[in-house]
Amino acid sequence: MKITVLGTTSQQEEFRKKKLPEGSEIFFVPTLEALSIISPSFIIFDLSFEPSTKRIELLTSLNKPVIINSVVNTLKGLGLPDSFIRMNAWPGFINREITEVAIGFDAQKESVQTIFQLLNWQYQLTPDTPGMISARIIAMIVNEAYFALGEEVSSKQEIDIAMKLGTNYPFGPFEWSKKIGLKNIYNLLVKLSSTGKRYNIAPLLEKEALQQK
């Protein structure tokens, strides 16, 4: 089985840790241009997906299943065809035991089942909504931690320790924000905040996110 993975060096390194069936051929490419000149694969992962017209047109033209890292943007919102499947591939999420995926059409369920059986990966179908499930919850946790920090309840380090000891989280909210990337969390919260006040962004989180390059 031939698999092509488009992504950054760090994304490729995390993908390498994901167990794949014996005999699988994995081709890593760094750019969209490189993807367009390789021979066809059974499946394509675009871990650096951006919703540009050029990128979508090229990926569509390959006529292969494409799994995109699209935590914020939905399939239906982008009007993507049924060859596209969303995946939560935020840093730290690629090599998880269960892969979170979303589809835009019910008819894709059988295709997803076939793909993930061949990959020998466990997966969980989630609604085609911004943040899916895990990313949405973690973004909210990080946001609340920034509200607490802004109100001088405690320090980042102490809040992280309290959440790990008190709730048995694997990471504290600020550790999560560093691992995932605060800009990723901010972009998701921007999208979510347009749907309801409960997603209003903590001023300190917004300030730190906008200061990052």
Gross morphology: globular
Summed up, the domain count is 2
Largest sheet at a glance? 7 strands, mixed
The amount of beta strand, in percent, is 15-25%
CATH class of the largest domain: Alpha Beta
Give the low-confidence spans: none
SSE pattern, N- to C-terminal = EHEHEHEHEEHEHHHHH
Roughly how much helix do the residues carry, as a percent range? Answer: 40-55%
- The CATH homologous superfamily name of the largest domain equals NAD(P)-binding Rossmann-like Domain
- Number of continuous helical runs: 10
Radius of gyration: 18 Å
How would you classify the helix and strand content by structural class? Answer: alpha/beta
- Say what the CATH topology of the largest domain is: Rossmann fold
What value does the average pLDDT take?
92
Distance between the termini: 38 Å
Strand order of the largest sheet: 2-1-3-4-5-6-7
CATH architecture type of the largest domain: 3-Layer(aba) Sandwich
What's the total count of β strands?
7
Topology, element by element:
Elements: E1 2-6, H1 9-16, E2 25-29, H2 32-35, E3 43-46, H3 53-61, E4 66-69, H4 75-78, E5 84-87, E6 98-102, H5 109-119, E7 122-126, H6 134-150, H7 156-167, H8 173-180, H9 182-193, H10 203-211
Parallel strand pairs: 1-2, 1-3, 3-4, 4-5, 6-7
Antiparallel strand pairs: 5-6
Helix pairs in contact: 6-8, 6-9
